[in-house]
Amino acid sequence: MLKTRQCLLGLRTFLGVASRIWGFILYILRKHLRTIIQYQTVRYDTLPLSPASRNRLNAVKRKILVLDLDETLIHSHHDGVLRPTVRPGTPPDFILKVSQWYELVVFTASMEIYGSAVADKLDNNRGILKRRYYRQHCTLDLGSYIKDLSVVHNDLSSIVILDNSPGAYRSHPGWRVEKMEAVQLDTGQLGVFYTGDSYIILNKHREGAELHMWIGEESSRDEQCACAMLATQLDQFLGGDAIQHRQEQGHETEDFLKLFPNGVSYKP
After folding, report:
1. Do strands 64-67 and 159-162 pair parallel, antiparallel, or not at all (unpaired)?
2. Active-site amino acid positions
3. With contact defined as beta carbons under 8 Å apart, do 175 and 185 qualify?
């Protein structure tokens, strides 16, 4: 009877230890599987465009897609050896796919010796990523590198950005609301307001940032609502620290008018 109890106790102890070991093995397997799924490359079927689609694309102005590298297209670190890890759903298939629709430009705040090596690896001798801009093309402002898109193209409305760091483009301070979307203004357009439109003007300084919503006297109610919504989205896009102001045509504040050294003009 005593031996039977000892056997049962030993069996229970064994089963308890085996259960813990099996649970630990399952935990390691799940963790390893999650890692494999997280970093596996998603591949797209790259099919040729139909004649109809190609004709439509040829009939419209080809836009420029500005691509950032680190934390956008890839994850990488440098400890003496360049070891890029490709983010799921990106190179090589992503670049090859979107190159059918856009002119691709690499713009990174990384040093050229690093960014060039990564871009070469992503391009893979296909000549897709010919245009490249690096840290020397950026401006150091308040400890951050700002990317000047005017070096890419003088018409900012033709540029599409894919970048994990929106603050890198905060040197572009003006947007006009067109068809419920915010369209960036060229530097020469700042201070020129159409009375039937609404605008968003960004004023950045050491204490923070301010977003001014300029409302034309002939702008529609829908456009004014869109301007407020886009200003809120832009505020979140820039980190949520900007103070928002409403400026109505003919009743602008002095602080707002000081943002335009050449003065403000209205156009019908």
Report:
1. parallel
2. 68, 70
3. yes
Q: What is the CA radius of gyration of the chain?
A: 27
Amino acid, single-letter form, for residue 198:
S
Helix (H, G, I), strand (E, B) or coil at 101: coil
How far is the CA of 231 from the CAs of 61, 71, 256, in angstroms? 28, 26, 16
Structure tokens at 267: 């156009």
Q: Considering the entire predicted model, what is its pTM? A: 0.52
Residues composing the chain: 268
Q: What distance in Å separates the CA atoms of residue 232 and residue 213, rounded to the nearest whole number?
A: 10
> Mean of the per-residue pLDDT values for the chain?
79
Buried-state track 87-106, b at ≥16 Cβ within 10 A, e below 16: beebbbebbeebbeebbbbb
SS (H, E, C) 78-139: ECCCEEEEECCCCCCHHHHHHCCCCEEEEECCCCHHHHHHHHHHHHCCCCCCCEEECHHHEE
d(CA 104, CA 160): 10
**Does residue 246 or residue 54 have the better pLDDT?**
246
Say whether 12 sits in a helix, a strand or coil: helix
Please, what is the end-to-end C-alpha distance for the chain in angstroms?
Answer: 104
Task: Classify residue 169 by its DSSP letter.
Answer: G
The answer to whether the CB of 107 falls within 8 A of the CB of 150 is no
How many angstroms separate the CA atoms of 136 and 110, rounded? 9
Q: Residue 161: is its pLDDT beyond 80?
A: yes
DSSP state of 60: S
